[in-house]
Amino acid sequence: VKPSPEPEDVLAAHADWLAAGGPPATVPAAAQEPDAELAELMSLAAAVQAALPPARPDPTLRSALRQRLVATASRGQLGWRSLSRVPRPSVRPRRPSWQRPQRVLRSGAALALASIILLLLWGRGGRPPL
Amino acid sequence: VNHSESELIERAKHDPEAFGELYDLYVDRIYTYILHRVGNPADAEDLTARTFFRALASMPTYVNRGAPFAAWLYRIAHNLVANWHRDQARRPTVSLEGLGGSVEAEVAGDGLAAATLTTALIGDAIRQLEPDRQALLVLKFSQELTNAEIAAILGRTEGAVKSLYYRTLIVLREILEQAAPASMTPHGADSEGDPS
User: CA torsion B83→B86→B91→B97, rounded to 10°?
Assistant: First the structure.
């Protein structure tokens, strides 16, 4: 026994038919001979489609909006030009790896020098300054 | 997105006139979508304008990922309509003006047997649905989009859109039965009234 398709599938196929203006070559059997429930929902779908006709904006407003959009873009008030004015975050170039040990050496040398000065002061009989 | 449209979209990122051409291609569809969602031409025109100005501002960041450019515009319009509905939440719903309220559709079947529904009645019923359900019906029937395209706009899967469509029709039928019981013959009404 061939399993009957889900109502969702039948209705989706039916909606596609409506949108396309008619049934395509492949029509599920359940949609060709729907039960009362499905038939009612299909009928309702057709009514919904009839209630949603295509529309057009007022021609004058349509044209005016186009002019405003193009003029706005041309003046750069919106879009790419305004965005291009936003300052980009600066990224500092990363220090080359071969330069980094020098910083460590400099720090070590400064620490050693400070230690020597402290020891000299201490050796002259005074108390440690700290 | 076909090749020529892709070129036009790329050009529209730095050429105002190319954006105007995109506007010409899509303005009627976007306006129709918005009009059916909000129900009056004045607000539809305003929201259509906002949709395209927002699109213009976002063009530099638009990336073509294979989905139709229209889906991107519908997404903008969808969000603006959602905001509009949020702002209008305390106002009563308006009737469908200027959309040919005299057009009638006959609905056959059990629950809505012999019912003759006007577009205004159906339009009002549609606007009582949840926003995503309204959008689904308009995108499906007015815009003739596929389930995959609708799924991209609503942020759902294709299967979820299919299920939502089925549930939406059932809810819509309930709303119509409650809204216009006088114009509809309920299921079994004749047999109940017949003593024999």
Answer: 40
The 10s digit of each residue's pLDDT in A52-89 is 888 889 999 999 999 999 999 888 755 444 444 444 44
Asked casually if ipTM beats, i.e. exceeds, 0.85, the reply is: no
Interface test with B, best of A38, A44, A65, A67 (most B CBs within 10 A): A44
Q: CA–CA separation, A60 vs B177, rounded Å?
A: 40
DSSP B156: -
- A102: three-class secondary structure by DSSP: helix
Distance CA(B166)–CA(B148), nearest Å, equals 16
Residue B124 buriedness (CB in 10 A; 0-12 / 13-18 / 19+): buried
**Tens-place pLDDT, residues B105-160:** 555 444 454 455 677 788 889 988 998 999 999 998 888 888 888 998 888 998 99
Spatial CB neighbours of B90, under 8 Å, sequence gap ≥ 6:
none
Helices (H), B59-186: 69-87, 119-126, 131-137, 147-154, 158-179
Contacts 24+ apart (CB under 8 A), A103-107: none
B44-67 tens-digit pLDDT: 999 999 999 999 999 988 988 777
DSSP B4-68: HHHHHHHHHTT-HHHHHHHHHHHHHHHHHHHHHHH--HHHHHHHHHHHHHHHHHHGGG----SS-
Q: Which residue would you say has higher pLDDT here, B89 or B40?
A: B40
Instruction: Say yes or no to pLDDT of B97 above 90.
Output: no
Judge contact between B27 and B52, C-beta under 8 A: yes
Instruction: Decide if A72 and B144 are in contact by the 8 Å CB cutoff.
Output: no
A8 membership: H or E segment, kind and range: helix A7-20
Beta carbon pairs, A and B, within 8 Å: 161
Please name the member of A36, A72, A74 whose beta carbon is closest to the beta carbon of B109: A36
